[in-house]
Specification:
heterodimer, A: 327 residues, alpha/beta, 5-stranded parallel sheet, two-stranded antiparallel sheet, 11 helices, B: 325 residues, Rossmann fold, 7-stranded mixed sheet, 5-stranded mixed sheet, 34% helix, globular
């Protein structure tokens, strides 16, 4: 399907939003402003941007520890996200979740998750509720990495979604490394989409660094799933350009490998397409990057100026009706 | 008030059915529940009325438990069967890392009205992987309310509360309890969490217990009464939260505390009760606090060994003799 110029630029901007957020988060982590661990989505932006563009506000997603991109693509406010990364009280989770567990149910983000593959059972439950009880036309997208596809939860969830024909798109972001271990070494199949056969569902592999390919493929799949096709496993081949976490010494791969992969990163590729087709020039490009750099810098200022939650507020939010239960 | 006699499992079905009628978002799923009516028949009373909301699932515990989070966040109220308490371990991370943490980690964005339920405890000669009582673990890890009732009337009232409150709940239903009969009010009622029930009043020793051991303790009380020893039997009914006030008031009256549970004695929940009581009512205690629990080994298959490992009335009587009355 032909995309309008406006749509193309909107998708480009979405990727730039994610990239600028991640670059700033990396910088502020190294500055010791952001505590804990952060896992960057740099190099994988086309997947969240291309797929989530097809979702409605009330569609649901589950995300991963590498989840900033999914949240932003689903409409998160970078200010409230950055505040969460800083552990501040205005953060999406009031500072209780942090980068790895950021979530916002009003946006339909059922959670980044500190446990690999944990989003798949959650997606299965949401799919069940939608199809069997609520009977709406919502769809669920479960994002996860290639490492997750070696966990039991992946296999249980695909079988489960298949037998009940649930409205779920399982999106595996094949980024070549499961933490520090090479994915080909750790995985029995070259293409994880092949595993769909074992569960009698459709499996599709797409170049995850090609925004237009992801967007087109996802558009067809989301439409079909919404109309009742049953679940689909969509594999997006990408590459994790940064370490597993910020600060990862990356002893397991050569700099040359990473350098080579930068040539294939999704924003540069899409930019070339836009320029070749006269949708974008340097002036417009600079304008977009300046705009998002400013938005992200403002979000850092917001996070810095925000207060930390009071220590004793740590005793809230466990249960709805009585925060205490201290015995 | 008019009462009707029903079994423990019948009382659960009645509570769920009444609430399903009022709330179309309640549904229940798990292994062997729809066609079979539960591996101990505990869903039989539900069959026929809301069949589209009673769903058999594959043996996939990570999803059975983890899915509850997604179902709750998508606006429903799932009741999830765990089949045997022992198999909670097969999907444990979905419970302890997901169900029990999502509300907190999200900063309390949404309620998470999930009920996990299923059979626990000793049956007869089911051996180590089908006999465990695991309530203490869920009392230790924060994030779920723990129900462990002992009578049809109590389980009915607690379910009525569970199905109308906003947080994750786990219900341990003792296998030997399902067929037990008792009288339940004909009219609907609910029992709040954290309210213990004094099943028998007494003056010499406070016995704090739950589930099957309530009945064993009551038998012990009858036997000891003949020797002039008076036990006060407190059925906690819920462990998170637990009724500190009722326990402490009783200890202030009797001056003695015995905790009784079927789960292992070592680091069992009785130790937590004992600890709180000595903090709060040390000056009222006339004797050390004693504990009854299973011996600290897995349950053996062989009948004699199982009887030796698992506590019953005789262990309660024996332990009571330690008190210098």
């Amino acid at each position: 399907m032909e995309l309008s110029k406006e749509k193309l630029i909107e998708l480009y901007e979405k990727m730039v939003l994610i990239r600028t957020f991640e670059m700033k988060a990396e910088e502020k982590f190294y500055n010791n402003e952001i505590p804990g661990f952060i896992h960057l989505y740099i190099g994988e932006e086309a997947i969240a941007s291309g797929i989530i563009d097809h979702l409605n506000k009330d569609d649901l997603i589950t995300s991963t520890h590498r989840g900033h991109g999914h949240m932003l693509a689903k409409g998160a406010d970078p200010k409230l996200m950055m505040a969460e990364l800083y552990g501040k009280k205005s953060g999406y989770c009031k500072g209780k979740g942090g980068s790895m567990h950021i979530m916002n149910f009003d946006l339909g983000v059922l959670g980044a998750n500190g446990e690999v593959a944990a989003g798949l059972p959650i997606a299965a439950g949401a799919g069940m509720a939608i199809k069997m009880i609520k009977k709406t036309d919502q769809v669920v997208v479960a994002f996860f990495g290639d490492g997750a596809s070696n966990r039991g939860a992946f296999h249980e969830a695909l079988n489960w979604a298949s037998i009940y024909q649930l409205p779920i798109i399982f999106v595996v972001e094949y980024n070549n490394y499961a933490s520090t271990v090479n994915s080909e070494y750790a995985t029995s199949v070259k293409n994880i989409a092949d595993r769909a056969k074992g569960y009698n569902i459709k499996g599709v592999t797409v170049d995850g660094n090609d925004l237009l390919a992801v967007h087109e493929t996802a558009g067809e799949i989301v439409k079909a799933v919404r109309e009742g096709s049953g679940p689909v496993l969509l594999e997006c081949k990408t590459y994790r350009l940064k370490g597993h976490f910020v600060g990862d010494p990356m002893n397991y791969r050569d700099d040359a490998e990473v350098e080579e992969k930068w040539k294939n990163e999704p924003i540069g590729r899409f930019e070339k397409y836009l320029k070749d087709n006269d949708y974008l020039d340097d002036e417009k490009k600079n304008e977009i990057w300046s705009k998002y750099t400013k938005i992200i810098e403002d979000s850092v200022e917001f996070a810095r100026n925000d207060d930390f939650p009071a220590a004793e507020e740590a005793l809230e939010d466990l249960f709805a009706d009585d925060a205490g239960y201290d015995y | 008030m008019a009462k009707v006699e029903m079994t423990f499992s019948g009382a659960i079905c009645r509570a769920i059915e009444e609430e399903m009628e009022k709330n179309p978002n309640i549904f229940t799923y798990g292994e062997d529940i729809a066609q079979q009516g539960g591996i101990f028949g505990q869903y039989k009373g539900l069959i026929g009325k809301y069949d589209d909301r009673v769903i058999d699932t594959p043996i996939s515990e990570e999803v059975i438990f983890g899915s509850a989070v997604g179902a709750a966040l998508a606006g429903t109220r799932p009741i999830v069967e765990f089949h045997f308490a022992d198999f909670l371990f097969t999907g444990m991370s979905s419970i302890t890392n997901q169900i029990m943490k999502i509300r907190y980690m999200s900063g309390g964005q949404r309620d998470l009205p999930i009920i996990l339920r299923g059979p626990d405890g000793r049956s007869n000669n089911a051996a180590a992987q089908h006999s465990q009582s695991l309530e203490t673990i869920f009392m230790h890890v924060p994030g779920i309310k723990v129900l462990i009732p002992s009578t049809p009337a109590d389980v009915y009232g607690l379910y009525k509360t569970a199905l109308n409150q906003p947080d994750p709940v786990i219900v341990f239903e003792h296998k030997q309890m399902y067929g037990k009969k008792g009288f339940v009010d004909e009219e609907e009622y609910s029992i709040p969490f954290g309210k213990a029930d004094i099943k028998r009043e007494g003056s010499d020793i406070t016995v704090v217990t739950t589930s099957r051991m309530v009945h064993e303790s009551l038998k012990a009380a009858e036997e000891l009464e003949k020797e002039g020893i008076s036990l006060e039997i407190i059925d906690l009914r819920t462990l998170i939260p637990w009724d500190r006030e009722t326990v402490i008031n009783s200890v202030k009256k009797t001056g003695r505390l015995l905790t009784v549970h079927e789960t292992w004695k070592r680091a069992g929940w009785g130790a937590e009760i004992a600890s709180v009581v000595q903090e709060e009512a040390f000056d009222y205690l006339d004797d050390p606090i004693y504990r009854v629990g299973a011996k600290n080994v897995p349950n053996s298959f062989s009948p004699e060994q199982e009887n030796f490992i698992m506590p019953d009335k005789d262990n309660v009587v024996e332990e009571v003799k330690k008190f210098l009355l």
